[in-house]
Description:
four-stranded parallel beta sheet; 21% strand; six-stranded mixed beta sheet; Double Stranded RNA Binding Domain; alpha/beta
Amino acid sequence: xxxxxxxxxxxxxxxxxxxxxxxxxxxxxxxxxxxxxxxxxxxxxxxxxxxxxxxxxxxxxxxxxxxxxxxxxxxxxxxxxxxxxxxxxxxxxxxxxxxxxxxxxxxxxxxxxxxxxxxxxxxxxxxxxxxxxxxxxxxxxxxxxxxxxxxxxxxxxxxxxxxxxxxxxxxxxxxxxxxxxxxxxxxxxxxxxxxxxxxxxxxxxxxxxxxxxxxxxxxxxxxxxxxxxxxxxxxxxxxxxxxxxxxxxxxxxxxxxxxxxxxxxxxxxxxxxxxxxxxxxxxxxxxxxxxxxxxxxxxxxxxxxxxxxxxxxxxxxxxxxxxxxxxxxxxxxxxxxxxxxxxxxxxxxxxxxxxxxxxxxxxxxxxxxxxxxxxxxxxxxxxxxxxxxxxxxxxxxxxxxxxxxxxxxxxxxxxxxxxxxxxxxxxxxxxxxxxxxxxxxxxxxxxxxxxxxxxxxxxxxxxxxxxxxxxxxxxxxxxxxxxxxxxxxxxxxxxxxxxxxxxxxxxxxxxxxxxxxxxxxxxxxxxxxxxxxxxxxxxxxxxxxxxxxxxxxxxxxxxxxxxxxxx
Length: 567
């Protein structure tokens, strides 16, 4: 165990005021600025702002420094990746959580709390669980269960809040003040943990890098890596710091915009598939600015298509499946090959691709479900669909779909979908037409619907269950059915099942709703997971109306189940 030094002070980088860590670990109490830790003496060993420290109980080895041989040969540079996804929870956040949780214990906090929708929630929960510190994770209401699975398994208390992340974060701050709770997040003590990246890298490298490419959201990790190098330079361990390159998605780039304007920018929202760096308010912007100025670094952006292509390229060429944010370094390098040609460049690969599989699923053509027949398998392989599927990922959907040729039956099914939307007064946008076309390509065209829902009505009364009435066409006979549920979707499904269960009982295990745009008339895709006698099916329906999309998905589920039973 290294010797621990506690000679430090916590100051504001904006006004210089010294702050008391028992009063704040987030922002300056004088001006609201960002805080930093300053040690009394420069030392060759890494220093932490703790009286005592326990060696990381979850981490077994440094994250690997890997030579990217194929990419280096392709692009004429010496390229390496620092595999930060090798951390215990699959993300670089563990470096900071390791220190933050110990600081919470040192400050005698009763619990630790944070607002998060993914990586940080899992990381803090893991370390809090190990050190037996209660952990409260505040999340917006729309946060998926998949995102929270890690935090949940580590016994964190999940608190869902109505509204967006901004409201969720504000309430978490109030909660922290309401008791003796340590507020974790992209703040000063997390920076002290994440600076270990630089110390670890210097121990691993054969020679210094010219450039280090770092994905940036709030800027905390960028500032932390710079701080580690700066401390080592002050201690005489290194002579100079590599040029640090901040990379952001073009659609979510307040840091890059601010670098060029020389002032912090806060955007209204942040929209990118690289969700782990989607930050509209970059807390540590000024630390990024200072780091770029000091190292002669740069700030670059990349497009969403470039993220997709580089994400796949890293996986297929080097075997590393990473989260979308990790594609930013490679994409920005390729956009500026003349500048970086012949240089030693390091890509910081921040997290595992298993953190965000939805991006891959959304931008890939889902293979159709085939009949259990060898001829059908060979026909599918030779159809051309497989080749289009492989070429599709990482390219614009319009480019992808331009190469798809529908057979006569699928073309008719697609036109029927579009016509039905048009009759409802819904004009499909380009991206919605493309999504619909992809969905239709995966549908069976020879399904006979045993049930058709002709109409429905929803009745909602205050403090009562929702009531639904449906008009069904079953074997050419119209029937009216009523039932109740805890919500409109539940009520409609119960009303349909009140009749259909008489001849084909089908359980609804789960439902997912995807809205393709923020507009009120957006195309809605509903996916149902259905089960009968232990066998499950996933079916989907599309409409501008959520309930109608649910109905279409269930109708299809009945047809598929009926066909399977008759086969």
